[in-house]
């Protein structure tokens, strides 16, 4: 048996970080796991540290004091803020890209630039900093059309406008109304791709990419993909009709040429790439790159992992890909997000949550905490928009779906809301 030698700092506080923490906790190489800032769920598998995910100097200081062997970034914001660069200066291993490489997620227009340079199939797009020029372009193109904030907007910076009025309103809100702050001062307006959307994940270092797997996220708040976009309301892994051969082909088409172009520019990428793709009639096209695991895709993907995640991330931090393969079970996974009333607008917080332990006792069900905290009485309460992610494994998508919804039914709080059709598309 391997000696437990690795001290790890995981950065973030959402459902993705709880799923990562639970996965890392199974590694025989792990000796200590710190999560900054974490949530009540991560506290069950490691030690929460009260440092914000974007407080880069404090994260580095803590990692040095605790003799941490590996820093693992969960969300995108610390990477775009330069966490990996600060770690490198402090001689700390970090399993994430530099600030320059994290622009792949931090700037939608930068992604388009890379796609055009590397001949990666993607929707035709234009970048605007002037609201009137953007409105003129939208009126010339007509609807449907996609309006994207250029910067980071926590998964809420994309509007797929089905009418001209909706497109004009999105442009006004982002650019003139400041609805997304600085992220929306510049927008990318692109043609609307038609097809099934899937998320593809790979470990990347330099020009090399190793497939992790794929999932399908359900972005809109309502059943039947209705209502506004959210950070994600549930996911299925693997997606229907997008097996391992199709995933490898998509890596060749949409990820490896990007890695080559990043090396050519002197800003090589290392870390996890999450490519959002549209499977169109003419083949897969790139929607966007993200520079970390998806949320809630990670919660659907990681429970299927049968290999050890920790050595793979350690190898990444050392700019190499591990020789040990990344392996997954053949089981299907379905995860359902339970959100607070009011989400994706202003969520109602403070309601006491019950039934999480009951759900966790169900066969093949795992509940990952996202927007939760403990109140003064030590009760688990709602503290964000997406509150819990109920994930289940099954031999079929149908079985996984039934188990996930059984888990959802075991949990309750005043104002709990969720979609009832996660997994239906895969069926």
From TrEMBL:
Pathway: Purine metabolism; IMP biosynthesis via de novo pathway; N(1)-(5-phospho-D-ribosyl)glycinamide from 5-phospho-alpha-D-ribose 1-diphosphate: step 2/2. Keywords: ATP-binding, Ligase, Nucleotide-binding, Purine biosynthesis. The keyword Nucleotide-binding applies. Residues 112-318 form the ATP-grasp domain. It is an enzyme of class 6 (ligase). InterPro entries: ATP-grasp, ATP_grasp_subdomain_1, PreATP-grasp_dom_sf, PRibGlycinamid_synth_ATP-grasp, PRibGlycinamide_synth, PRibGlycinamide_synth_C-dom, PRibGlycinamide_synth_C_sf, PRibGlycinamide_synth_CS. It catalyses: 5-phospho-beta-D-ribosylamine + glycine + ATP = N(1)-(5-phospho-beta-D-ribosyl)glycinamide + ADP + phosphate + H(+). PANTHER family: PHOSPHORIBOSYLAMINE--GLYCINE LIGASE, PHOSPHORIBOSYLAMINE--GLYCINE LIGASE, CHLOROPLASTIC. This is Phosphoribosylamine--glycine ligase.
């Amino acid at each position: 048996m391997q000696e437990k030698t690795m001290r790890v700092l995981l950065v973030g506080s959402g459902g993705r970080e709880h799923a990562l923490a639970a996965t890392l906790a199974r590694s025989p190489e792990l000796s200590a796991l710190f999560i900054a800032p974490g949530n009540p769920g991560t506290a069950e598998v490691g030690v929460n540290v009260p440092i914000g995910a974007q407080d880069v100097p404090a994260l580095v200081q803590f990692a040095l004091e605790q003799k941490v062997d590996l820093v693992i970034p969960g969300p995108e914001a610390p990477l775009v803020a330069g966490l990996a660069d600060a770690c490198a200066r402090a001689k700390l291993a970090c399993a994430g890209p530099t600030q320059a490489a994290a622009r792949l997620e931090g700037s939608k227009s930068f992604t388009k630039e890379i796609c055009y340079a590397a001949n990666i199939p993607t929707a035709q797009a234009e970048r605007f900093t002037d609201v009137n020029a953007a409105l003129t372009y939208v009126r010339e193109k007509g609807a449907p059309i996609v309006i994207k904030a250029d910067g980071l907007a926590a998964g809420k910076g994309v509007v797929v406008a089905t009418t001209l009025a909706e497109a004009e309103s999105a442009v006004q809100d982002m650019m003139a109304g400041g609805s997304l702050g600085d992220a929306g001062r510049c927008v990318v307006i692109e043609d609307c791709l038609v097809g099934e959307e899937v998320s593809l994940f790979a470990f990347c270092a330099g020009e090399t990419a190793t497939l992790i797997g794929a999932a399908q996220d359900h972005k809109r708040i309502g059943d039947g993909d209705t209502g506004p976009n959210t950070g994600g309301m549930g996911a299925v892994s693997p997606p229907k009709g997008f097996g391992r051969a199709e995933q490898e082909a998509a890596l060749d088409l949409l990820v490896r040429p990007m890695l080559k172009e990043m090396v050519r520019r002197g800003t090589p990428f290392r870390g996890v790439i999450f490519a959002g793709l549209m499977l169109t009639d003419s083949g897969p096209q790139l929607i966007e790159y993200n520079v970390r695991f998806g949320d809630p895709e990670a919660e659907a993907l990681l429970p299927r992992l049968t290999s050890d995640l920790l050595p793979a991330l350690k190898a990444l931090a050392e700019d190499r890909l591990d020789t040990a393969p990344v392996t997954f079970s053949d089981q299907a996974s379905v995860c359902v997000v339970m959100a607070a009333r009011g989400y994706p607008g202003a969520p109602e917080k403070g309601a006491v949550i019950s039934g999480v332990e009951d759900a966790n006792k169900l066969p093949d069900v795992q509940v990952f905490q996202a927007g939760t905290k403990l109140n003064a009485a030590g009760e688990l309460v709602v503290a964000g928009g997406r509150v819990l992610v109920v994930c289940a494994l099954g031999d079929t998508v149908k079985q996984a779906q039934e188990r996930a919804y059984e888990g959802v039914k075991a949990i309750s709080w005043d104002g709990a809301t969720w979609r009832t059709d996660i997994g239906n598309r895969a069926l």
